[in-house]
Amino acid sequence: MNWIRITAAENIPPREGRTVQLGDLSLAIFNTGERFLAVENRCPHNGGPLADGILGGATVTCPLHNWRICLESGQVSRPCESGAPPVRTFAIEVMEGIVMLAHDQARIAA
């Protein structure tokens, strides 16, 4: 698998998120303190910037209307009756201190 360099892992402190722009795609990259997770930086409810949300474990709460998104699956957990489609998730790894995005994921997302 090929990888695209995103940023140094140290640029995303534990329990925080950052926005990364790849062409037309805006990603929200999170450091849970144990691992890094990536989703499309757009809440399915009203387009809120998920990177600016409140991180709790592997869940982010949208800063606009408190919708909760699982960063592992992209599923909306609150409100559970929303019927909203999941947020796109992306495979990332930290390699030698650099956050990397799977190349195939970037191509699919673009």
Number-wise, the strands total 11
* Tertiary shape: globular
Distance between the termini: 18 Å
Strand order in the sheet with the most strands: 2-3-4-9
CATH topology: Rieske Iron-sulfur Protein
Helix content: under 10%
Main β-sheet description: 4 strands, antiparallel
CATH superfamily: Rieske [2Fe-2S] iron-sulphur domain
By secondary-structure content and strand pairing, the structural class works out as mainly beta
Order of helices and strands: EEEEEEEEEEEH
Mean pLDDT: 91
Integer-rounded radius of gyration:
13 Å
**pLDDT < 50 stretches:** 106-110
Give a quick set of tags describing it.
single chain; 110 residues; mainly beta; Rieske Iron-sulfur Protein; 4-stranded antiparallel sheet; globular; disordered C terminus
Give me a quick take on this structure:
The protein has 110 residues and is mostly beta strands. The protein has one helix and eleven strands.
Structure description:
- By secondary structure, the protein is mainly β.
- It has one domain (3-109): Rieske [2Fe-2S] iron-sulphur domain (Rieske Iron-sulfur Protein, 3-layer Sandwich), CATH 2.102.10.10.
- 6% of the residues lie in helices and 44% in strands.
- The chain is built from one helix and eleven strands, in the order E-E-E-E-E-E-E-E-E-E-E-H.
- It has one helix at residues 103-109; strands at residues 3-8, 16-22, 25-31, 36-40, 54-56, 59-61, 68-70, 76-78, 89-90, 92-95, 98-102.
- The protein has a four-stranded antiparallel beta sheet with strand order 2-3-4-9, with helices on one face. A four-stranded antiparallel beta sheet has the order 5-6-7-8, with no helix packed on it.
- The longest helix is centred in the C-terminal third of the chain and has 7 residues, at 103-109.
- It is globular and about 40 Å long.
- The two termini are 18 Å apart.
- Mean pLDDT is 91; it is low at 106-110.
- GO terms for molecular function: 2 iron, 2 sulfur cluster binding; metal ion binding; nitrite reductase [NAD(P)H] activity.
- Its EC number is 1.7.1.4.
- Residues 4-101 form the Rieske domain.
- It is an enzyme of class 1 (oxidoreductase).
- Keywords: 2Fe-2S, Iron, Iron-sulfur, Metal-binding, Nitrate assimilation, Oxidoreductase.
